[in-house]
Amino acid sequence: MTIDTFTTAALADEFNELLVGGRVQDTVQLDHDTFGLEIYINRERRYLLLCAETTAPRALITPEKLRRGVMSPSTMGLLIRNRLEGMKLIAVRQPAWERVLIFDFLDEGGEVQLILEMIERRANLLLVENDIISDCVRRVGADENRYRVSLPKHPYVPPPPMEGKTHPADLNPKVLNTLLMREPDQKAWSVLVKNVYGFSPFLAKEAIFRAYGRVDVRASEVNPYGLDAALGSFLRSLLRNEWQPGVAVGEGGQVLGVAAYPLTHLGEWEAMPTISEALSSYYGRLEGGAVYEAAREPIRLQIQNAQKKLERKLGSLKKSLVERADVEHLRMAGELLLAYQYNIQKGQTLFEAEYEVDTPPLKIKLDPELSALDNAKAYFEKYEKAKRGRQQVPEYIAQVEHEIEFLDQLATDLDLAENWQDIGEVQETLMKKGFWQGKKVQHPKGGQSGPLRYVTPDGFVIWIGRNARQNEDVTFKKGEDVDIWMHARGVAGSHVVVKTNGRKVPQAVLEQAARFAAYYSKLRSEEKVDIITAERRQVRKLKGGHPGQVLVREELGNLRVKPMAVPEKSKDG
Asked: To the nearest 10°, the Cα dihedral for 460, 465, 469, 475?
């Protein structure tokens, strides 16, 4: 969906009210196209997100601190940081009818503009000083656009002005009729978009819908007086900057559109206090864990590739697991060939050996290039190999299954990772265990995170591991024999230990701990999750297993609970 000119105007009004006069304290780069500014104003920090994605350009104020999403900032990111930090935002401007926002910053060194062009397929963010481009997200040379070169050290040229359209304030039945009759066979909303300043497809469809209750009306079918009446107060409110921000919600609850005016033709209109909140609802908040998704993806791909490789290996091992009867068949074939060797001619490909009365002869395939004795030796060799396989292959199968389970745990660790350290730790584990192929992906560095510690109102300490290493620590370092151990049944997830200190644990505490175990597991999105409970003394490390892989010798029981995260204010590592 494209942000239109009226939504852009609403953003400019909001930014002028809430941000202008503030000073830039910090800047971050979330990804190649997206940047954040921390602006301090009226003793409060506000966070401005500017995104020049070609498919979803946007600007909005976010309620939470924006997080760095790249290992090293780009040249554009470095310039934004070096030039804007410490500067004062003095104005936010919108060129007439454009989907462009110009942020004016000032310090003792002069004035700088940060210009966001929210035009799909050509979206850009440019840092401009003295009308010269310092850098931009999307560099455009003369070979692509002779009119507008967007390159460092080149003059900034604004988008070409729109000409030949009608101002919305000049619309009346006569003007509307003239415009619509230019293309009578076209959809009426399409004709309005082509001929009226500020009319986006959404705005034009909304106008037609208000007049006719549907949007698929041809221009020739429109009564200009009826359309003018439908536009009425709706259009006058927009021209007076009387915004009604919100989102259109479909029957399934999905957000279908966002604007600074009601989009009743799309679905139920859900009003919101600000256009930033509406945009955040539509696009999803980038300031949360989703900022790490780009970093997770290459690691997730490595895990999936390793899992596929092990699944193929497991399939091959299971196929190689010869049945006991087949193993005995090989031994018997060798013995019978020795017994009947003088009855077999060289070059023979099949021999039928009688071995029991009233039993059909055993058909034995022969290698025509070998003698009867050599064929017998070949069968004995196959027999020894198959016999060893029957003893060893089950062990190999168990090992591969444990490897697959460990990768499943790492995949869950990756999904639950809440910071760069946790994401990087999954990658380091994959490399250490030999599952990583190719170059290492660089991430911002930091120390290893620890397990979560939660203290209940009645003083019980609950430890929660959020990855394989932490699980090992929680179970075998934090946990003691008399403590209660928990884990989601049958899936990868957290090891949770309730410290008893010799006390009986109330049911409410057990259920609280179980909810944490459910949330920090592969099943966190389920309504209810089964949780294993056991005394810690009954939990043993899996022989030859990876960190966090255990065997539970005896359970205390099962708790079925709704997943719940550890309260943010209660988190303690």
From this structure: 40
* Three-state DSSP class for residue 156: coil
Is the separation of the CB atoms in 57 and 118 below 8 Å? yes
* Cβ-contact 389, 322 below 8 angstroms: yes
Q: Looking up tokens 């290493």, which residue turns up?
A: 469
Q: How far apart are CA 484 and CA 512, in angstroms?
A: 13
Note the pLDDT tens digit of each residue in 387-419: 777 777 788 888 899 999 999 999 999 988 877
The mean per-residue pLDDT over the stretch 302-314 comes to 93
Smallest CA-to-CA distance from 563 within 534, 522, 533, 509 is with 522
451-464 pLDDT, tens digit each: 999 999 999 999 99
- Within 8 A by CB and 6+ apart from 86, the residues are 23, 24, 107
CB of 342 closer than 8 Å to CB of 351: no
State residue 287's pLDDT score.
Answer: 44
To the nearest 10°, report the CA torsion of 531, 537, 542, 546.
Answer: 70
Cβ atoms of residues 68 and 423 within 8 Å: no
C-alpha distances in Å from residue 85, one per residue of 25, 27, 36, 271: 6, 7, 12, 35
Instruction: Quote helix, strand, coil % in the chain, to nearest 5.
Output: 40, 20, 40
Task: Summarize pLDDT for 260-305 with one digit per residue, the tens.
Answer: 999 999 989 999 999 999 998 888 644 444 556 767 888 899 999 9
Domains and CATH numbers, the chain: 5-136 (2.30.310.10), 168-283 (1.10.8), 295-415 (no CATH), 452-570 (no CATH)
Report the amino acid identity of residue 57. P
CB 380 within 8 A of CB 334: yes
Sign of CA dihedral 170, 175, 176, 179: negative
